[in-house]
Design a protein that fits this description.
It is built from 11 helices and 9 strands. The chain has 413 residues and is of the alpha+beta class. The structure holds adenosine-5'-triphosphate and magnesium ion.
């Protein structure tokens, strides 16, 4: 639905509680408004309210996802406060009430790329939100992480839009034939309908690359070209990106979700880089050590002088001289080494366990090794890819039809 169509709802009050004061903008699923939360005619506060055009078949499930969003709470997740159904001008809609943000990352990027420090702050805050989602019992996956969904509230970045979040409670829920999200931010396995928290880490990698370079790391003129780039090509990154973001972006853009960096790894890497920066004060330590080494040389020279003097003028207790030992305070080697550039790799077993839902179908031992034709696993992969692409086009078609239906409704007197 175009912006002007959403605008028709300005001034409308939903459930006697939310008065739509001003239309902000439209997205793929709905229109966002500044809403006055009123109780008994009195203004309580201003919120953002998103009106969503539901899918008739999945309306209840979509509502449940929105309600689920209101149960989440983290400093880097946009607060969702209320959700429900409403009928406005004979159109059945869903709504989500959120904290009102001042701007979004997409808007910020129109003014230019982020500085490395700004990008570091963004990486930490969004990784922290993703770690929270992943650590929920349902292992939530956002699946639409992109600059337009990263909002600024005060001086904090917050991840918004949970309409697409799915609970990954079961293995079957980890696979879907529907590709949802924004294709440029979709990971390779997303095209096969495989969902896991690694999906969001890929999207974070794409977002960080864009914020630092001003360009998407994967591009294509058609959705097939884009898919080919995502699946097979190395990311376009004018190398090197500023440290420690270079390692983070590349880690997040690992094609294999089982080795892709997790949110925890990103946070740990940022922590160790910050510690490294703090101990950039190490020259002082090096100076102290140099000073100690010089002192040791002096001591040795003094002892040598003393010994020489004694040999000239032997004293009464020569045996005591042998007790003098001087150990040079040579710095222990690791103390002067730079901080490791990457966090400790998670043991493969642990990564596999974490990525269990995305493990590729097992290849049976009886499969011929030098099989020239597509093995069943690859054929199955192709089939899933095709299904996911079809689903993407079907989704576009659904949105187009919904838009048309609303346009027709608008034309009616
Ligand atoms: N809570 C909010 N406070 C202020 N502005 C918001 C809020 N949520 C969304 N917006 C703004 O409203 C506009 C539309 O957002 P919306 O989420 O509908 O679309 P989108 O993020 O562009 O795409 P998608 O539908 O894929 O999420 C964007 O400019 C966004 O920044
Ligand atoms: Mg959005």
């Amino acid at each position: 639905m175009s912006g002007s169509l959403w605008q028709q709802f300005e001034g409308v009050t939903i459930e006697n509680k939310y008065r739509l004061e001003r239309f902000i903008a439209a997205g793929g699923f709905g229109g966002v408004f500044v809403a006055a939360h009123v109780v008994s005619g009195r203004l309580l506060t201003r919120r953002a309210l998103k009106l969503i055009l539901p899918d008739e078949t999945f309306m209840q499930a979509q509502l449940e996802e929105l309600v689920q969003a209101t149960r989440l709470s983290h400093p880097n997740l946009l607060g969702c406060l209320d959700a429900g159904k409403c009928v406005l001008r004979n159109i059945e809609l869903l709504y989500l009430v959120m904290d009102l943000a001042e701007s979004n990352l997409a808007g910020r990027l129109e003014q230019g790329v982020l500085t490395p420090d700004e990008a570091l702050e963004l990486a930490r805050q969004i990784a922290s939100a993703l770690e929270y989602l992943r650590s929920r019992p349902e292992h939530l996956v956002h699946r639409d992480l992109k600059p337009a969904n990263i909002l600024r509230v005060g001086d904090v970045w917050k991840l918004s839009d949970f309409g697409l979040v799915r609970a990954l409670g079961t293995v079957t829920a980890a696979r879907t034939s529907t590709l949802i999200g924004t294709p440029q931010y979709c990971p390779p396995e997303g095209y096969e309908g495989i969902i896991s928290p690694a999906w969001d880490m890929w999207s974070l990698g794409v977002t960080l690359a864009l914020t630092l370079t001003g360009e998407l790391p994967f591009n294509g003129n058609t959705s097939q070209e884009l898919h080919a780039a995502i699946a097979r090509r190395e990311p376009f990154l004018p190398s090197p990106l500023p440290r420690p973001l270079d390692a983070i972006v590349r880690g997040c853009l690992a094609k294999d979700p089982r080795v892709r960096w997790t949110a925890r790894q990103v946070i740990e890497h940022l922590d160790s880089a910050a510690t490294g920066a703090l101990s950039a004060g190490r020259p002082r330590r090096v100076f102290n050590r140099k000073f100690a080494a010089a002192a040791a040389v002096l001591v040795i020279a003094l002892v040598a002088l003393l010994l020489a003097a004694r040999s000239r003028f032997p004293g009464p207790t020569p045996a005591s001289d042998t007790a003098i030992q001087v150990t040079s305070p040579v710095p222990e080697p690791e103390a002067l080494q730079p901080a490791p550039s990457a966090p400790q790799q998670t043991p493969v077993k642990e990564q596999e366990a974490r990525a269990a839902p995305v493990a590729p179908p097992a290849v049976t031992a009886s499969e011929p090794k030098a099989e020239p034709a597509r093995p069943p696993a690859a054929a199955e992969k192709d089939r899933r890819k095709e299904a996911a692409l079809k689903a993407l086009f079907a989704e576009e078609e659904r949105r187009r039809k919904a838009r048309e239906a609303l346009l027709k409704q608008e034309d009616q007197p």
